[in-house]
Each structure stands twice: as structure tokens, then as C-alpha cells.
Amino acid sequence: MVFPNRARVTAFRALSPRRSAFTLVELLVVIGIIALLISILLPSLGRARMEGQRVKCLSNLRQIGAAFMMYTAENQGSFPQHSNWGNCYGKAGTDTRYDKNPKTGFLGETGVVEERPLNKYIKAPEVFACPNDIGDTLQTNVVSCFESYGTSYLVQWSTAFAVKNVTGAGKGAATNAPMKVGQAKQTSSKIVTGDWNWHANRPMSKEATLWHNRNRTQRTFNMLFMDGHAEFYWFPSTYEQPPFSTNAAPVNVNGTFW
Fold first, then answer.
1. How far apart (Å, rounded) are the C-alpha atoms in residues 138 and 129?
2. What is the DSSP secondary structure assignment for residue 249, as one 8-state letter?
3. SS3 137
4. What is the pLDDT of residues 211-241, one digit of tens each?
5. Which residue spans traverse the membrane (predicted)?
6. What is the pairing mode between strands 104-105 and 220-225?
7. 114-115 and 104-105 as β-strands: parallel, antiparallel, unpaired?
8. What are phi and psi of 238, to 5 degrees?
9. What SS3 state is found at 185?
10. Please, which residues bridge with residue 230 across strands?
11. What gap in Å lies between CA 212 and CA 51, rounded to an integer?
12. What is the 3-state composition of the chain as percent helix, strand, coil, each rounded to the nearest 5?
């Protein structure tokens, strides 16, 4: 019997690839590191997503602001008149609570016999949809204002909550007639419209009021102002104080003519 040379066998073993594997401890360390990275990144990703949705909403409001400017240019400087809070612009909603029957919306939609006045200047219904729209605080059966009312944005249609109306009912309603360009003392701080729940009668304790933030201590919403700019606006604490009366006089607090 011929035995292989011992040195040759040793050399062969040295050149052969050795199988290696993670130990249980090493695997647990890797899993722990991955879990730690996820816990660090998830809040940042959530904030980035929220910021992106807020920016999309602000873009919608700027387009609505441009439509208001075109409307006033064609109507002797007057803002629109319409029959209720929710039917200045947008598609036909499933709920006529803030509309009238037959529904208003875009001409051509089922059941629509009258176009909302600002729709002439914006043909894409999605412009009126806020990506963070989670419903109306005052109506528990409304999951999305856009789907129910046709718009995620509530225009200042009537004098209420110490805010001078911008649009109005018009004929025979002297206290609720539409404003004209130039009537506001400061167009850069005169609120026109914003996220649906911006009014002071929407309680901060309700989740549906908090579309763009989770800060329950201050009212913050995406808002459009009369000069056409939109911003994430922090309302002063005085806005929360009563009386919440439709006859309350407009006020000027810290330079803001609401």
C-alpha cells in the first residue's frame, strides 16, 4: 500500500477553502445594529413624508390663489359669491351639507347643474385635495373633506370667528357680500382660505383637526393669503378666545387682519 506524502497532504489542506459562519452572538449583534438604524431612520422618514405632503398642500393653495386673482381680474376686483361654505371651488361632493341641491362642481359631473365659480380657472379636481385630509372635526361621518364636500379647503365665506369674509352670498346680504381687491388693510396677512378645519370652532383635542402637525397646543394650518402667498401659519392664542359670533368684528392682532 502506498501512503501519500504527509507534507503534500498538509499543503493540500492549507490551500482548500475553509467554510466560515456567523456565530449566534455575531448574528444577534448584526440584528441589533439593524434594529437601531431602523429606529433612528423611521422618525426622519416620517417627518420627511409629512413635510412633502405639506409642501404639496401649499402648492395646491398657491394655484387656488392664482385662480382667485384671475377671477377678480375678470369681475371688477370682486371675489366670488356662492351659496354656502363649501361650494366656491372643487368637484361635486357626496355630501350636500355645505353645498346646495342639485350639486355644484365641475360641469359634466353627474348631477352637476352649476359650476363652482373658481373651477373655470382650475380644471384639475386634485388641486382641491390636501394629501393629509382626514376629515371634518364637526362631522364624524366625514373621512375626507375632499370626497364629502369636493374640497379640502374652506374659504372664508362668512364673517365669523372675528374674521372678515372674503367670498360671500352676494345679493341681499349686505353683511356677507364678497370683498373687493383693495378692501383688506394688509393683503399679505388677510386670510382667504386654508385647510378645512382652520376655524376656531374646530377643537384642537380632535385628531381630525390636526392635518399637518400633532401639536395640540397651537392651531397651525396651511393657509392662503390675499396677496397669493401660502404658508404653514401659526394662529395667535387670541384666535381661540370667544365670542365665536357671526357678528363679531374683524380684529387686527400682531399685524394680522384676519
1. 19
2. P
3. coil
4. 987 667 788 999 999 999 999 998 887 777 6
5. 21-42
6. unpaired
7. parallel
8. -65, -25
9. coil
10. 224
11. 8
12. 35, 15, 50
